[in-house]
Amino acid sequence: MKCEIGISDLKKEEFWVSVFAEFLATFFFVFMVCGSCLLWDKNDPPAVQHIALCAGLGIATWAMAVGHWSGGHINPAVTVGFLSSNKIAILQGVCYIVAQFFGGIAGSAMLYGLTPVDKRGTLGATVPNAGVSTGQAFGIEFLLTFLLVLTIFATTDAKRNHYGYEVPLAIGLCVTVCHLVGIRFTGCGINPARSFGPAVIMNIWTDHWVYWAGPVAGAILASLLYHFVFRARKELGPNADKAVGPEDVELH
User: Fold this and answer.
1) Distance between terminal CA atoms of the chain?
2) How far apart are the C-alpha atoms of 208 and 126, rounded to whole Å?
3) Residue 23 and residue 70: Cα distance in Å, rounded?
4) CA Rg value for the chain
5) Can you tell me the distance from the alpha carbon of 19 to that of 28, in angstroms, rounded to the nearest whole number?
6) Nearest in space to 182 (alpha carbons), one of 205, 211, 204
7) Mean of the pLDDT values across residues 130-152?
8) pLDDT (tens digit, 9 = 90+) per residue, 211-248?
9) Dihedral through CA 215, CA 175, CA 122, CA 77, nearest 10?
10) Cα-flanking dihedrals φ and ψ of residue 249, to 5°?
11) What percent of the chain has pLDDT over 70?
12) How many angstroms separate the CA atoms of 172 and 105, rounded?
């Protein structure tokens, strides 16, 4: 979809399919990631690697599944990043974000309903770990989301000729690395919809603003930095000798 999307596009089936794709992908992502955090055995809690792989492979899977329709954002912070660099229209971005938050709530609610009462625990709600200050939690969420969004912009840059499985795989690997680092600090939200879903269902709001402010700020900085500093100025690959023109330095 182009950035010129307007009110008239609300009548088009393609627009709503893309919005539903974001809802469905976020629904399953939150369901899977929070499901990987459940405490089935108090003497054998889920390993960090277990949760990180679930998050990374989940993102890669759903980015591949719905990327051709919606771009596979599956994260309000990512959508805000695309909005801040004018990659998608405001109406499209707002609808994506609403769909993502509802997807996160629905995924958490479904997990709650399917999980035995004594196994639910916090349902994977993200809160800062003991000893981690609010400022430190914000910093972790900011930096890890910055890394994620910068990676997304780099792998989806049309002039870098990245296609096929390498794009969702690279993003999924980045999500995995972020979780390997961030789980011990904050539970690794880096996605406001992922944090919001279980918070609503379990009514757990400890320092919850961190899981909105950190990711959104990190996403905006990463998107602007990539657009104005790191984006490819000419084709890489078969057309690598293409000269840089005026269109390469203007905002899309």
Assistant:
1) 14
2) 8
3) 10
4) 18
5) 15
6) 211
7) 98
8) 999 999 999 999 999 999 998 887 765 555 443 333 34
9) 20
10) -120, 10
11) 89
12) 22
State the Cα–Cα distance between residues 232 and 245, nearest whole angstrom: 12
**Nearest to 207, CA basis, from 135, 109, 103, 156:** 135
Q: Is 135 left (phi over 0), alpha (psi -120 to 50) or beta?
A: alpha
Residues 6+ apart with CB under 8 A from 226: 85, 149, 150, 153, 154, 157
* C-alpha–C-alpha distance, residues 147 and 7, integer Å: 34
List phi, psi (to 5°) of 138. Answer: -60, -45
13, 1 Cβ separation under 8 angstroms: no
Q: Which ranges constitute the DSSP H helices of 71-89?
A: 76-84
Place of tokens 């939150």: 30
Task: Specify the residue for token string 């939200």.
Answer: 189
Give me 185's structure tokens.
């600090």
Q: What is the pLDDT of residue 165?
A: 85
Distance of alpha carbon 37 from alpha carbon 32, whole angstroms: 9
